[in-house]
Amino acid sequence: MANNTADHPPGNSVAEVDHEVDFGCTTMQLRELMELRSGEAVSKIAECYGDVQGICRRLKTSPIEGLSGNPADLEKRHAAFGKNFIPPKKPKTFLQLVWEALQDVTLIILEVAAIISLGLSFYHPQGEGNDSCGQASGGVEDEGEAQAGWIEGAAILFSVIIVVLVTAFNDWSKEKQFRGLQSRIEQEQKFTVIRKGQVIQIPVAEIVVGDIAQIKYGDLLPADGILIQGNDLKIDESSLTGESDQVRKSLEKDPMLLSGTHVMEGSGRMLVSAVGLNSQTGIIFTLLGAGGEDEEKKVKKAKTQDGIALEIQPLKSEEGVESEEKEEKEEKEKKKVNVTKKEKSVLQSKLTRLAVQIGKAGLIMSAMTVIILILYFVIQTFGIEGREWTAECTPIYIQYFVKFLIIGVTVLVVAVPEGLPLAVTISLAYSVKKMMKDNNLVRHLDACETMGNATAICSDKTGTLTMNRMTVVQAYIGDTHYKSIPEPEAINPETLELLVNSISINSAYTTKILPSEKEGGLPRPVGNKTECALLGLVLDLKRDYQPIRDEVPEENLYKVYTFNSARKSMSTVLKNTSGPGFRMYSKGASEIVLRKCSYILDASGQSRVFKAKDRDEMVRKVIEPMACDGLRTICVAMRDFTTEPDWDSEADILNDLTCICVVGIEDPVRPEVPDAISKCQRAGITVRMVTGDNINTARAIATKCGILLPGEDFICLEGKDFNQQIRNDRGEVEQERLDKVWPKLRVLARSSPTDKHTLVKGIIDSTVGETRQVVAVTGDGTNDGPALKKADVGFAMGIAGTDVAKEASDIILTDDNFTSIVKAVMWGRNVYDSISKFLQFQLTVNVVAVIVAFTGACITQDSPLKAVQMLWVNLIMDTLASLALATEPPTEALLLRRPYGRDKPLISRTMMKNILGHAVYQLIITFTLLFAGEKLFNIDSGRNAPLHSPPSEHYTIIFNVFVMMQLFNEINARKIHGERNVFEGIYRNPIFCSVVLGTFALQIVIVQFGGKPFSCTALTIDQWLWCIFVGVGELLWGQFISAIPTHHLKFLKEAGHGIPKEDIAQEQLTEGADAIDLAEMEMRRGQILWFRGLNRIQTQIKVVNAFRSSLYEGLEKPESRSSIHNFMSHPEFVPLSEEEARIPTIDEGCVEIDQLPSSSRKGGGGEPPGHSLHSNEFSV
C-alpha cells in the first residue's frame, strides 16, 4: 500500500456513505461505469479517470502489489462497496411444505371421506327409531356406537396428518441438507488475488472492490472488474447477454469483465470494481427478487422464453444453480411454459407408467366394491324386504352410503402405493449422502440412478486414468536422444540458456513448483501439470525459473498466444531489450510444432536446416519410440523477428521456428485403474478413451489400463480419420456412417472437443443394438462443456476441472479418479434394485389387502381389516418399509450383471413370481382364518357380529396374522433375483433390523392396548405364538417359491416397462411441442380408434412428409436435463432465435404436425398407427 498513499482522491466526489469519502469513486459511479460496453466504456474511463491506473489510484490500490490486506482497510471497503455475497432465496417454510404435501389427490379423497364420516357421526336424524327404515340402520341407535362413531373419521384424519408431516419433514430436511451442501461448496470456492505483492487464494466471498484478481482459462468470474493486463483473453458472456460468440477483451477495445461470465481462453489481471448485489449479476438478481412474486414470475417467464440463460448465482455454487433450476422448473410447471422438453430419467419413466397401471387397477377395484355394496344394500332393503324410501329414512340411508364410500376409498388407498415416491426419495437421498464419501458429489439427483444403467463411459486420459503427476523422463537435445535427464554439463551452454528461458517465460506465471509440505515429501506442483513437468526439468538441470520471471514480469510480455484445443501450442513474444526486433518462444504437441519448424539446434548450439525428411526420421526414431512407452511428447522451439510482423496472422507467425528440444513426459497410470476398468467390462460397460494426446501414447496407455486387450479387433482412431469416416462430402455428420465406427472404437486420439461431442451424441442417438445406449462422459476443460451436457451423465473433475466443466456436469469427482465412477455405477444400480425390492414387497401387500377388502366387503358387508387398520398397514408398511429396503448398502455383486437398459421392465418375471406366490400364501391363510378361524382357535365368530359389539378376538387375530406375514415377507423382499439366502448381509444394514424390530414392537402395543380406535382386543400368549408361527411360514414358503424355475411360468407378465424403442424415435420429434407426461399418454389409449380412422389419410400425407422430413434433420435430441444455463459457448449450439428462424413450422405448426399419425411423420409406415399415441397430442 505504501506505493499509492501519495495519490489522494480528488475532492469533487460525491459521498453517498461516510466511508465513500475515503475513496475517489462512489458505488453508483462504478455501477454506471460497469453498465457500459466496449468503446463507450473505454472513452468513459479516459474522460473521467484518465486510464485504469487512475481508477486504481482512486480506489487506493496498486495494479502490481494489490491491496495491503489490512483488516481495517478491508472493513472500510466492505462498508463502502458491499460484500461479495448475494443472499440466497428464502427457503420454503415448514407450513408451505405441509400445504404442498396436502395437495396429494389420494389424501384429499381421504380427508373428504373422513370429514363426511365425522359430520355424520355427530348428526342424529329424526327417523332413527323408525322401524320402517329397516335393519339397515342397525346399531346407529345404540348409545355406545353413537359415541364411538367419530373414532373412525378421527383416526383417518390422524393418519393423514402423519403422512403429511412425514412428507413435509422429508422435504424440509432435504432442503436443509441441500443448503448445507451449497454453503459448503461456496466456502470451498476460492479465487486468486494479489495482496501485498503475494499471489494468494481467498474465498470468493472475501473479494473486495479494489482487489487485483488473476484470471485464467476456465475461470468463472466472481465479481465485476476492469482489465489491467490481458493475454489473448476471450470471454463467453452468453450467460448474461445470450450472445453465443466469444468476446475478445483488451485494454484498448473492451476492458469490462462481468461476474458470472466464463473465461474461455487466455489469462490476465483485473481490478475488481463491483461485488455482490452491485455487480451486473447482482443487479439482475435484485430485479428478480424485488417486485414480489408476480414480478418475479413475469421476469423469469420472459427470460426463459427468450432463451436467455441467466446466471443467477455468481458465487457459482453448483447447488445454488440447481435450486434456481428447481424453482424455474416449478415456475414453468405452474405456467405450463415448456421451453425445452425434459426427457425423464430411465427410472422415472418406468415408475410413472407403473404407478398409472396400479392406480387404474385400484380405481376399478374400489369402484366395484362401492357398487356391489350399494347394490346389495338396495336389493336387500327395497327388493327382498320390500320397504319404501321415505323422507325420514333418507339421512340414515345416506349415512350407509357414506360408510360404503369409506370402505371403497380404503380399498383405493391400499391399492395405490403412495410409499413409492417416499422410497425413491429416501433411496436417492441416502445414496447421494453416501456417495459423498465415495468422492462423488451429485448435483442432479436423477444422475445417480441413470448411472446404474450406463452402458458406455467416454473417459479422459490425463488425471482420470493417469495420476496427473507429470515428470520429464526422456529428452532429445542437440542431436542426442537421452533416455534419462542429462547432466547440465552434457548440454551446450547456449542451448541450455535458451531452453531454460523458453520454459520459464513461455508458461503461465501462475504455474509453480512449491516445496513439499511434509519433510522429505515430493514437491507440490501448482497449475498446469504439463508446464509443471517442464519447470521440473529446469530444476533437474540445476537452474531456477523464478529469477528469470522476476527479470521479465508478466506485464512486459509483448504478446501471448495461449494454449487452446485448436492450436495445441502456446507462444510468448518478448520485445528485445538490447536492439530492435522480437523473440518468440513456443511449445506444444511435438508433431504439430515440428511441422512448423524449419531449423533445429545441433550439438554445438548452431541452427541447421530441418527438412521434411529430417522431420520424418525424427518422428520415426525419437517421437514414436517415446509415444510407444506411453510418454507425452512436447516440442520446445523459438523464432526471432527483425521487424514487427502482423501479430493477428497466426499462420505466418507460428512458422519457420527453430526446434530447441523434444521432451517425453511420463504420466503414470493410476495403480487402481486397470482393476476398475475390468470391473466395468464385466458389468457390461464399454470404456472408451478420448484424449488430445498422440495416438501412440494413447494406445500405450489404453493397453496398460486394459481398455485395449490383445487379440481383440478394436480400433484406435485419430480425430481427423474419425471425421473422415463419419462425415459425408458436404462435411455433415451422418448417423449411419457413425454407427459403423463407434461399436468397435476404443481410443480416439488427437481429438478436439467437437469430436468428443459428436461421438457422445452419435452413440446416444444410435439405434444399433437392442437398446439405446446410456453414456457417461468425463471432462475437465471448459470446452468439454457441450459433451458433458449432452451425455446422460456428465462427470467433471473436482481438482483439475474448470468451473465451466463443473457447471455443465451432473456429478463432480472430488478426487478425479476413475475408480470413483465405478462406485457411482454401483450406487446407481443399488438405487434401482432398492426400488425393485420395495416394489416387490409393497405390491404383495397391496394385492392381498385389496382382494381381502374387496371379497370381505362383498361377502360379509364389512371389510375384515377396518379402515384404521388398513391405514396402519399402509402407512407403517409403506413408510417404514421404504426406509428399510431403500437403505441397503451396495455390494460388489451388483457389478457382475449387465445394465438393465431403458426398456427392461421394473418388475421382472422372477419378481412377479415372488409377488403372486406370496400373495397366494397370504390369501389362503387370511380366508381360512376369516371363515374358519373361530373353530381353529375355539373363539366366538367375528363375522356378522352386530355393529355395536366390541372388537372381536377373531378379527384381531386376522389383523395380527396379516401384519406378521408382512413383517417376515419384508425379509424375503431383500432379494429380487431369486437368491436362496435372504439373510445374507442383513447385519450390514442396521436400519433394516431396527425397522423390523420397531414395527414388531408397535404391533404388540396396538393389539394389546389399541382398543376401540384400532378395533383390537388383547390376545393371549398362545394366540400370539400361532400368529408368529404363521408369519415365519412366509420364509419357508419363500424357499419353496424360489425353487420353481421362472422360465416354466410363461404366463407371468412383466410390468413397468421403459419407453419402447420406436417411441424414442418419435419422442425426438416432439421436442418443439409441450412435453407430454407419460401418465397422460397412458390415459390416451382411447385415441387409438381415432388413429385407425386417420390411417387412410396417410397415403396423401406421405407426399407432404417428403418435404417435411428435411425440417427435422437439424433438430437435436432433447437434452436429458433442462438447465437455465443454455450452454452456448460452442458453434454447434445454435441460439434459439436462429433455430426458430430455420424451422418455422415447429412453433406455429406443432398442432398440425402433431395431428398426423406418428408413422406418417417418420416417413410413412413402419408400424401400425396404434403406436403413435406416445408422441401425439390429439385435439378434437
UniProtKB/TrEMBL annotation:
Entry EC number(s): 7.2.2.10
Positions of region (Disordered): 317-336, 1155-1180
TM region positions: 97-122, 150-169, 363-384, 404-430, 915-933, 953-971, 991-1011, 1023-1044
Keywords: ATP-binding, Calcium, Calcium transport, Calmodulin-binding, Cell membrane, Cell projection, Cilium, Flagellum, Ion transport, Magnesium, Membrane, Metal-binding, Nucleotide-binding, Phosphoprotein, Translocase, Transmembrane, Transmembrane helix, Transport
Protein name per UniProt: Calcium-transporting ATPase
Main location: membrane
Function: Catalyzes the hydrolysis of ATP coupled with the transport of calcium.
Molecular functions per Gene Ontology: ATP binding; ATP hydrolysis activity; calmodulin binding; metal ion binding; P-type calcium transporter activity; PDZ domain binding
Catalyses which reaction(s): Ca(2+)(in) + ATP + H2O = Ca(2+)(out) + ADP + phosphate + H(+)
Subunit structure: Interacts with PDZD11. Interacts with SLC35G1 and STIM1. Interacts with calmodulin.
Domain Cation-transporting P-type ATPase N-terminal intervals: 46-122
Family that this chain belongs to: Belongs to the cation transport ATPase (P-type) (TC 3.A.3) family. Type IIB subfamily.
One GO term of the biological process aspect: regulation of cytosolic calcium ion concentration
Compartment(s) where it occurs, according to its Swiss-Prot or TrEMBL record: Cell projection, Cilium, Flagellum membrane; Membrane
Broadest EC class assigned to this enzyme: translocase
PROSITE patterns noted in UniProt: ATPASE_E1_E2
PANTHER family with a match to the protein in the record: CATION TRANSPORTING ATPASE, PLASMA MEMBRANE CALCIUM-TRANSPORTING ATPASE 4
Gene3D superfamilies listed in its UniProt record: Calcium-transporting ATPase, cytoplasmic domain N (3.40.1110.10), Calcium-transporting ATPase, cytoplasmic transduction domain A (2.70.150.10), Calcium-transporting ATPase, transmembrane domain (1.20.1110.10), HAD superfamily/HAD-like (3.40.50.1000)
Organism superkingdom: Eukaryota
InterPro entries: ATP_Ca_trans_C, ATPase_P-typ_cation-transptr_C, ATPase_P-typ_cation-transptr_N, ATPase_P-typ_cyto_dom_N, ATPase_P-typ_P_site, ATPase_P-typ_TM_dom_sf, ATPase_P-typ_transduc_dom_A_sf, ATPase_P-type_domA
GO cellular component: plasma membrane
Membrane topology summary: Multi-pass membrane protein
